């Protein structure tokens, strides 16, 4: 029931996002233009500029929320999220290297493929470093190190490429934005996002069993090693595909599952879909907000998600301080 | 070997030409636009170094010529080591470098961004005087004036609205070289209609809504090299602005004010004539 309500909220936000933009269009005009009426500029604005943007916000927000919920389930830790572990930053690095070395242009399939490979490598390294019984301190430290490394690598790769507009392009990759994307971008990202989501959802029962503890799950027939690999692959596919067209957008994956828990409970399997819906709703809302906040140049949506996400992260730490202190020592 | 012979020949020729006695002998340019001017107007043996982008053919009009000279970092360090008696810089870039050089007693000549064809002519005169060859300015200015006259003759009678848009939707506004060039070819800059009289970033939506008759771009690459360039191949723009509605002038002809403007004007005039005669692309009705 709660899931249906969340999906409804997300759908409403997706429709609202078609109405937001620098050119003021009335709801009637937007509806007309969406279904092929209206003037040609209006149709182009709604169908080719705002629609792909809404689709991307929906898909990327959903996969980030889903990845966060899956990682938190896998590690049985509420502070896990792709961004905190450096996966989006690594994906951005992979994509940038492909562009900077001239192997591919900015609209090629090599981009998401490289992003996915880099995201997979980073999450894999992270979990390898953290070991089986993921110690939170090690996870967070390793994640911090990986994301700092990937961020620096991204900036360096853009600098080394013969691109006179490096500063602008670096900001894009590090802060993330959905501005003026097209259906070419949707085609680039969506297949990978769907594949990642399918993998994560297919493993939901194993994640539920894992919440009983690793040994209990083993004895109940869950291959924990396989599950781990599957979740990493799902997260890497989804996050890599997303980052290749949007740059790094952080904290959606951290926040979404936490908002879902009070409504759904703590079952990792049942959390997946609602987390995806909340992730999509959050990114849609943030992407509407960056278009409504008056500013001379566009605000990057990644900036907004970080501004909301980081205080939330701090709040989580304060709330769970006692438990964390125990876990950290 | 050939290059060496050429360099020797240039040296002989340049020595033969009279030069003001107090003319600078070691000029370092740390700005792409002053690179173009000094390459055009100074003797080869006067140039001690050029800016980092001087050899980038996409931006630098004289990229090939620039290869004969040392490429500097654009910073103060190698500029000082070159012991210049004149450093050429832009007025709005590398403030710290300029301050440092001045503090070390190096004469620094700063050039404004050229905002019109007249500005550019003025800069040619100033550079020619600076390098001790004031007489070299006039032939270049005459060439620009001739191109201006040709552009006026070919100028559009219908004054279509053109939006000069570059990567990430940057639009060149009112007082700019681009507006000046457009005006010379009888075209109206659509930036003013969009509230971007002084230039700025235009969203894709705003461009589609304003619906200029043509867009002026710097290239027609369909494989964008980064997300900033990807904007120019966005399906929304491709649909409204197929090749027939795009005018193209490479960046190296419009980034700076200088002798390359003659080429820019001729190219623009040719494209206007082509559009006028074909009549295949009428102005958008509004």
Automatic annotation (TrEMBL), chain A:
Transport in keyword set: yes
Main location: membrane
InterPro entries to which the protein is assigned, alphabetical: ABC_BtuC-like, ABC_transptr_permease_BtuC
GO molecular function: transmembrane transporter activity
Membrane topology per record: Multi-pass membrane protein
Location(s), subcellular: Cell membrane
A GO-annotated cellular component: plasma membrane
UniProt keyword annotations, A-Z: Cell membrane, Membrane, Transmembrane, Transmembrane helix, Transport
Membrane-spanning ranges: 56-75, 82-103, 109-129, 136-162, 182-202, 229-259, 271-289, 301-318
Alphabetized SUPFAM superfamilies for the sequence: ABC transporter involved in vitamin B12 uptake, BtuC (SSF81345)
Family: Belongs to the binding-protein-dependent transport system permease family. FecCD subfamily.
PANTHER family, per database record: ABC TRANSPORTER PERMEASE PROTEIN MJ0876-RELATED, FERRIC ENTEROBACTIN TRANSPORT SYSTEM PERMEASE PROTEIN
Protein's name in the database: Iron ABC transporter permease
Organism: Rhodomicrobium udaipurense
From TrEMBL, chain B:
Entry-linked PROSITE patterns: FE_B12_PBP (PS50983)
Keyword Transmembrane helix: no
Signal peptide from the UniProt entry: 1-20
Source organism superkingdom: Bacteria
Keyword Chloroplast: no
InterPro entries given in the database record: ABC_Transporter_SBP (IPR050902), ABC_transptr_periplasmic_BD (IPR002491)
Keywords, ordered alphabetically: Signal
CDD domains: TroA-like
Domain Fe/B12 periplasmic-binding: 26-276
Pfam families: Peripla_BP_2
Gene3D superfamilies for this protein: Nitrogenase molybdenum iron protein domain
Name the record gives this protein: ABC transporter substrate-binding protein
Organism: Rhodomicrobium udaipurense
């Amino acid at each position: 029931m709660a899931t249906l309500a969340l999906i409804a909220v997300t759908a409403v936000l997706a429709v609202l996002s078609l109405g937001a933009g620098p050119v003021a269009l009335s709801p009637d005009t937007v509806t007309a233009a969406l279904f092929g009426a209206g003037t040609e500029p209006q149709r182009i604005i709604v169908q080719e500029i705002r629609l792909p943007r809404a689709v991307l916000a929906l898909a990327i927000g959903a996969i980030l929320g889903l990845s966060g919920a899956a990682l938190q389930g896998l590690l049985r830790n509420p502070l896990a999220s792709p961004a905190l572990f450096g996966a989006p930053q690594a994906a951005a690095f992979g994509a940038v290297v492909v562009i900077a070395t001239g192997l591919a242009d900015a609209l090629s399939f090599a981009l998401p493929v490289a992003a996915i490979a880099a995201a997979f490598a980073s999450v894999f390294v992270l979990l390898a470093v953290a070991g089986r019984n993921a110690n939170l301190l090690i996870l967070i430290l390793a994640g911090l190190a990986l994301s700092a490394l990937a961020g620096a690598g991204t900036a360096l790769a853009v600098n080394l490429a013969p691109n006179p507009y490096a500063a602008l392009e670096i900001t894009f990759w590090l802060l993330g934005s959905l501005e003026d994307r097209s259906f070419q971008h949707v085609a680039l990202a969506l297949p990978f996002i769907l594949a990642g989501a399918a993998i994560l959802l297919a493993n939901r029962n194993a994640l539920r069993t894992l919440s009983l503890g690793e040994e209990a799950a083993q004895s109940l027939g869950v291959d924990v090693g396989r599950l781990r690999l599957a979740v990493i692959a799902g997260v890497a596919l989804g996050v890599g595909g997303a980052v290749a067209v949007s740059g790094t957008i952080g904290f959606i994956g951290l926040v979404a599952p936490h908002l879902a828990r009070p409504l759904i409970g703590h079952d990792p399997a049942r959390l997946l879909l609602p987390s995806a819906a909340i992730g999509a709703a959050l990114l849609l809302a943030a992407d509407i907000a960056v278009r409504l906040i008056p500013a001379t140049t566009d605000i990057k949506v990644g900036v907004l998600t970080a501004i909301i996400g980081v205080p939330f992260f701090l709040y989580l730490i304060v709330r769970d301080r006692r438990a964390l202190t125990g876990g950290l020592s | 070997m050939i290059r060496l012979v050429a360099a020797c020949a240039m040296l002989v020729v340049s020595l033969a030409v009279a030069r003001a006695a107090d003319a600078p002998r070691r000029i370092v340019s740390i700005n792409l636009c002053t690179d173009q001017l000094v390459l055009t107007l100074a003797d080869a043996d006067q140039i001690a170094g050029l800016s980092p982008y001087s050899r980038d053919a996409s931006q630098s009009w004289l990229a090939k010529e620039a290869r004969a000279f040392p490429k500097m970092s654009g910073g103060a360090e190698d500029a000082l080591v070159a012991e210049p008696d004149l450093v050429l810089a832009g007025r709005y870039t590398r403030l710290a470098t300029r301050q440092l050089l001045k503090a070390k007693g190096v004469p620094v000549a700063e050039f404004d961004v050229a905002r019109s064809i007249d500005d550019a002519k003025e800069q040619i005169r100033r550079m020619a005087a600076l390098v001790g060859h004031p007489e070299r300015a006039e032939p270049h200015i005459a060439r620009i004036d001739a191109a201006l006259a040709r552009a006026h003759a070919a100028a559009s009678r219908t004054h279509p609205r053109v939006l000069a848009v570059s990567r990430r939707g940057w639009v060149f506004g009112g007082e700019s070289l681009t507006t000046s060039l457009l005006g010379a070819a009888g075209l109206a800059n659509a930036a003013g209609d969009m509230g971007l009289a002084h230039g700025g970033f235009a969203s894709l939506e705003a461009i589609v809504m304003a619906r200029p008759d043509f867009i002026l771009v710097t290239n027609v690459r369909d494989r964008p090299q980064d997300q900033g360039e990807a904007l120019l191949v966005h399906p929304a723009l491709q649909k409204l602005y197929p090749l027939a509605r795009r005018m193209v002038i490479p960046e190296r002809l419009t980034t700076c004010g200088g002798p390359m403007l003659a080429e820019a004007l001729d190219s623009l005039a040719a494209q206007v004539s082509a559009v006028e005669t074909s009549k295949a692309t009428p102005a958008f009705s509004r």
